[in-house]
Amino acid sequence: MLGLQEAQYRMVTEIQRQTIGLALQGKDVLGAAKTGSGKTLAFIIPALELLYRLQWTSADGLGVLIISPTRELAFQIFKVLRKVGKNHEFSAGLIIGGKDLKEESERIHHINMLICTPGRLLQHMDETSYFYASDLQMLILDEADRILDMGFADTMNAIIENLPKKRQTLLFSATQTKSVKDLARLSLKDPEYVWVHEKAKFSTPATLDQSYIVCELQQKVNMLYSFLRSHLKKKTIVFFASCKEVQYLFRVFCKLQPGLPVLALHGKQQQFKRMEVYTCFVRKKAAVLFATDIAARGLDFPAVNWVIQFDCPEDANTYIHRVGRTARYKEGGEALLVLLPSEEKSMVQQLVQRKVPVNEIKINPDKLTDIQKRLQAFLAQDQELKEKAQRCFVSYLRSVYLMKNKEVFDVFKLPLAEYALSLGLAMAPRVRFLQKVQKQLPVNESADETNPVKETEQNKNTISSINKEGVEKCRTNFSGKVSANKAKEEERRKETEHPPSSEGVEESDESEDESEESEEEEKEAALSSRLVQQWPPVQKSGVAEADEDDDAGGINLDKVKEILQEEDKFDKEEYRKKIKEKHRLDNIKPYTTPVVDNNVSLFTT
Known about the structure:
Elements: H1 2-6, H2 14-24, E1 29-32, H3 39-53, E2 64-67, H4 71-84, E3 92-95, H5 101-107, E4 113-116, H6 118-127, E5 138-142, H7 144-149, H8 153-161, E6 168-173, H9 178-187, E7 192-195, E8 208-214, H10 220-229, E9 235-239, H11 243-256, E10 262-265, H12 271-283, E11 287-291, E12 306-309, H13 316-323, E13 333-339, H14 344-353, E14 359-360, H15 372-381, H16 383-402, H17 416-422, H18 432-447, H19 457-477, H20 481-497, H21 505-532, H22 557-586
Parallel strand pairs: 1-6, 1-7, 2-4, 2-5, 3-4, 5-6, 8-13, 8-14, 9-11, 9-12, 10-11, 12-13
């Protein structure tokens, strides 16, 4: 009680009132409550009380294990534990990725309360020989549904196998899903199910004002900039679908200088940097944080005024967790969801089914600032920034394509050329995975008429028009020589198959000259025929040095070089055959290699 009073915790929330008593009785608990309702204390208080009753010491080893899906949430839980439990003599530890494994291994066997992420915990179970959990008294999973959503199911199953079966288990989350029930069947024994707001009218806090706008893809960046310019004294979190979107738009908005501090939080950052950004944003009174869903789970950002979902969330659960970063602990807050016209109908239906009150508002076009030319100027001056824009483009398309709900997300309905321009790019970068899907669609449709992946008439028109643009672009670049060279190549093949009779050496020499003159044209034809098939027109870029996930476009010079070398070999072989055939028919002696005088120097003075 003393720790709670010193930490200024005086009011008990509903989830704490209903779950702490059950947990102190030794029962397994499956608890769900709205975001910002105080779930962290609902499991920390029973954990401290359990070890206090057992008079647990550092010699007894691990007594309580708390697992969270993200490093930031684990760090936040650890901070709350230090505040509330500072008057106890228990040892507490935090093990997360990004820290020194050897240093953690030296201390882990002395820890009584361990807060961790699943991957790091399993790594210690496999590699740290003196790490034991045989005396574990309580297992706690925070944001349990997200642990499964993030692909931790196999990891969690392996962890649970290494834990004693005789233990108490507490599971907490803001949403209740089937996946949590599946996990509950694996680890809970006759659990007490507590859903505080199950009968509530809405699934989100009553103090949260929620709205959505329908915005064309090419206007979203302009809309975001205009919004920030009109909310300079507010604290805002903007959620994006991918890390590369955050990286590019963060750099761009720093250059645009909207009038308030701009921060970025995503999974590609080092752990120290993520903690630094989190702490910095918490301290600021007015700022904007560009983030991925890494910031949507459990993190407590005080006094956030706005949550903007720049990209449509995967489902209603993700929406609820995102907006939960504001209107916490009965404070007020506002949330704005940005939807494309193709996403509006299905997504709004999902939110209504989950009892989320959301109202449509309109954009005032007079207040919309166009920043496209400024972005183009930035990219023209900075090649690295241009490559980030290309990666942003590809990454967004990939995130849309990988979404499960195809009623909401259809990558083929997106205006690619217009979206590229809105990012400051002159043309749409090459997107290889879409090319593969485009090639597979006709085959799949003919093989199985019930295939869920169907290409609409609009998709066909869009793709075919882009292909035509790509072909015309390549033909223009090669000055219309593609068709001419193809004709010459066909004519040369006919001559090879049916060589004409030669009347003398002079005609043979003339034929040799013609072959030599056409050799360069044939090389160009080979290269042209390859490039005509590329879609969309590529830009010169250094993105090839990046990983597969960063595939943004550009001519692969090494690949072109290999193609030309192969064509050279083919041309030379055909040329030799042709000359030999002429020599044989005309009874001319074979061509001999000229003698080289070794006394002649390669260099002359």
